[in-house]
What we know:
There is one protein chain. By secondary structure, this protein is mainly alpha-helical. Helix 2 crosses helix 6 and helix 5 crosses helix 6.
Amino acid sequence: MLRHNCTAGLFLFLLAATAWAGDPGQGRELHQESCIQCHAAMKGGIYGHDGTGIYTRENRRIESLAALHKQVRRCKTSLGVSWPENQIEDVVTYLNQNFYKFEE
């Protein structure tokens, strides 16, 4: 019985972890649609033609996964896009996997 409960518990844990993980592919699409244009135009284009240099610059401000979440929410509000929580998580996952590489 204990073994069965542990297996069920592990299954539920993995299911929950999967449900909360963002979709980096969807995050990339959202990022391309809403973020790149502004980042590429910042400061005369010093962050590169695609604007992703803002994520890899030496003096970047984002130093943790929590700060990344906060910044994505800030940008979402500034842009006036209506991303629900799962889309915010998608963008955070995309950015973290491709640029920041914070441990989750």
